[in-house]
Structure formats: structure tokens, C-alpha cells
Automatic annotation (TrEMBL):
<dbReference type="InterPro" id="IPR016181">
    <property type="entry name" value="Acyl_CoA_acyltransferase"/>
</dbReference>
<feature type="domain" description="N-acetyltransferase">
    <location>
        <begin position="2"/>
        <end position="145"/>
    </location>
</feature>
<dbReference type="InterPro" id="IPR000182">
    <property type="entry name" value="GNAT_dom"/>
</dbReference>
<keyword id="KW-0012">Acyltransferase</keyword>
<dbReference type="GO" id="GO:0016747">
    <property type="term" value="F:acyltransferase activity, transferring groups other than amino-acyl groups"/>
</dbReference>
<protein>
    <submittedName>
        <fullName>GNAT family N-acetyltransferase</fullName>
    </submittedName>
</protein>
<dbReference type="InterPro" id="IPR050832">
    <property type="entry name" value="Bact_Acetyltransf"/>
</dbReference>
<dbReference type="Pfam" id="PF00583">
    <property type="entry name" value="Acetyltransf_1"/>
</dbReference>
<keyword id="KW-0808">Transferase</keyword>
Length: 145
């Protein structure tokens, strides 16, 4: 399986399940909190890597956030699959989509623990950003495409 956009109800379910398990459940957030208003917007690009059993190994999304700028959100890799290149595949899929859309820059708000991952992929810290759920500090990062 390679990275692709979710296409079937089962793939969408796997996509949002992983988003919830990695980015919401550990902070006791309610089911449904993993959804964003613009998930269904035609301009939002979703990336999914599936395991052979149909569960999601990695997910992420991109949306236009300014003139020729895109924002990556909701990057998540299943805990058992972290550190094996899945996150890189997801992010490179989204960067390729951004280039095809004519975007010249990607920004994102990285959780502190993920900052070295994004640095490894060419992103630079711009400034401290918000704190999520009262504890999860973020850094604004950017990469010129
Ligand atoms: C952050 C996350 C998406 C990275 O995905 P991943 O699949 O674990 O990362 P990869 O294996 O693709 O790593 C790509 C490169 O970054 C490096 N890297 C990843 N995490 C790192 C870390 N914490 N410290 C240093 N380097 C790191 C890897 O060593 C690898 O380097 P290489 O190119 O030399 O092989 C994933 O670990 C995750 O979902 N974490 C929990 C949720 C989260 O924080 N999401 C981000 C929200 S902003």
C-alpha cells in the first residue's frame, strides 16, 4: 500500500480513528473532537497510509492558508509504527500535492515532541505558538517549497 487520499467509507473511518487515537484520546478528548470543519472542503488534501489489515498507519492533511501558502495539520502515525519512515511518507505526499497546487510555502504548528521530525524534513522554527489542552506546547514552523 502507498500513501493516498482516503476513498471509501472504511478508509475514512480508519483515517479519523487514527487521528483520534494519536492526537485526541491520550488527552481525554471526546470522540468527534478529531474532526475539523474544513475536512470536507474540496481544497483540503488528506493523506493516508494503510496497513494490510485495513488499519491506518499514518495520516495527515493540507489546506490552503494564504496566498500560495498551505498549512499541514493532524499529522499522526500509529505508536507501533513511529520511527519507521511513515511520517516522512505522509509529509512528502502532502508536499508534492502542495507543489502541484502551486503553493510555495508550508506552515504548521508542531507539537514540541514533533519539532525534530519536522526539522529533519527541512522545516524551520519561526516562533512559539499556542498550547493545546493546557499542556501541549506548539512551535510555528515553515518550509519553502
Ligand atoms: C511526529 C510523527 C508524525 C513523526 O512520524 P514518524 O513516522 O515517527 O517519523 P519518521 O520515522 O518518518 O521520521 C522521519 C525522520 O525524522 C526523524 N525523527 C522523527 N522523530 C524524531 C524525533 N523525535 N527526534 C529526532 N528525529 C526524529 C527520524 O529519525 C527520521 O530521520 P531520517 O530521515 O534520518 O530517517 C509521529 O512520531 C507521531 O505521530 N507522533 C505523535 C503525534 C504527533 O506529535 N504528531 C505531530 C503533531 S504536530
Amino acid at each position: 500500500m502507498s500513501v493516498h487520499s482516503p476513498a471509501t467509507p472504511a478508509e475514512w473511518a480508519a483515517y479519523f480513528r487514527l487521528r483520534y487515537e494519536v492526537l485526541r484520546q491520550p488527552w481525554q478528548q471526546p470522540e468527534g473532537s478529531e474532526h475539523a470543519e474544513d475536512d470536507a472542503a474540496p481544497t483540503t488534501t488528506h493523506a493516508l497510509l494503510l496497513a494490510p489489515d485495513g488499519k491506518a498507519l499514518g495520516v495527515g492533511r493540507l489546506h490552503p492558508s494564504g496566498q500560495r501558502q498551505g498549512q499541514v495539520r493532524f499529522m499522526a502515525v500509529a505508536s507501533a509504527a513511529q520511527g519507521q519512515g511513515v511520517g516522512r511518507q505522509i509529509l512528502e505526499f502532502l508536499e508534492a500535492a502542495a507543489r502541484r497546487q502551486g503553493l510555495t510555502e508550508i506552515v504548521l504548528h508542531a507539537r514540541e515532541n514533533a519539532v525534530p521530525f519536522y526539522q529533519q524534513l527541512g522545516y524551520l522554527v519561526v516562533a512559539p505558538s499556542h498550547t493545546l489542552f493546557g499542556t501541549v506546547a506548539h512551535q510555528l514552523m515553515r518550509k519553502a517549497l
